[in-house]
Specification:
Helix 4 crosses helix 9 and helix 8 packs antiparallel against helix 9. Helices cover 62% and strands 10% of the residues. The chain is mainly alpha-helical and 232 residues long. Strands 1-2-3 form a three-stranded antiparallel sheet, covered by helices on one side. The protein folds into two domains: 154 residues, Ribonuclease III domain (Ribonuclease iii, N-terminal Endonuclease Domain, Chain A), CATH 1.10.1520.10; 69 residues, Double Stranded RNA Binding Domain (2-Layer Sandwich), CATH 3.30.160.20. The termini are far apart. It is built from twelve helices and three strands.
């Protein structure tokens, strides 16, 4: 295989020269690729993902603990926003992970949501590979540049907050009302019911969402309403 793209990624993007380039290639290797190339490839990235997830959480936790005196609950919400799939998947896409992914033909045709998850998993796997090959400091430097650098945007946007709490703040500050949640529809048998919930502000529908419980429907509706106010 051509190792050049992975050497270039290590040097130009990660800013290091890998001692063992194979471990970096493994970080980009999805299980589906191994299943499709059993004669030539035997290792996928899930163990590296497991390690990288722990390193990522430690670096983010250390940063928040050392720089902010806020209570545990706030720090936990901030950390969750920084390390969630959407955040690290976006970081992977921004820094050119996608062309390096080794996927089966089926996975290459997968949904956008599936691809986001694969990118997020690969981001964690690369952290694991970086930690093993270059040490903690190199992993911390990469996480700081790609994830912690987005923290101010997360604070400013309020995306770290629970959607319902965030929406209430937005609505009250903009319109002076409290959002009201109403169940618009219930479908399905009792053991598999789906609820569609609408959010009304001064009797005007601002968003709706569907979920397997009223609470889940409310959360989806709040996300929809937040999207409305972001564009308004």
């Amino acid at each position: 295989m051509d190792y050049t793209p992975y050497h270039n990624f290590a040097t130009n993007t990660l800013g290091v020269s890998f001692k063992d380039i194979e471990i970096l290639i493994t970080a980009f290797t999805h299980r589906s690729y191994v299943n499709e190339h059993k004669k030539t490839v035997s290792v996928h990235n899930e163990r590296l993902e497991f390690l990288g997830d722990a390193v990522l959480e430690l670096v983010v936790t250390k940063y928040l603990y050392c720089n902010f005196p806020d209570p545990e609950g706030i720090l936990t919400n901030w950390r969750s926003a920084l390390v969630r799939t959407e955040s690290i998947g976006a970081a992977a896409a921004k820094h050119g992970y996608e062309p390096l992914l080794r996927l089966s033909r089926g996975e290459k045709r997968g949904s956008d949501r599936a691809r986001e998850q694969i990118l997020a998993n690969s981001f964690e796997a690369v952290i694991g590979a970086l930690y093993l090959d270059q040490g903690y400091d190199a992993a911390e430097k990469w996480i700081t540049a790609t994830i912690l650098s987005t923290f101010q945007d997360i604070l400013t946007s309020g995306s770290w907050m629970d959607p319902k709490s965030h929406l209430q703040e937005v609505v009250q500050s903009r319109e002076g009302f409290t959002p009201v949640y109403k169940v618009l529809e219930e479908i399905g048998p009792d053991h598999d019911k789906m609820f569609t919930v609408g959010i009304f502000v001064n009797n005007v529908l601002r968003g709706s969402g569907t979920g397997p419980s009223k609470q889940a429907g409310q959360q989806k509706a709040a996300e929809a309403a937040l999207a409305y106010y972001a564009q308004a």
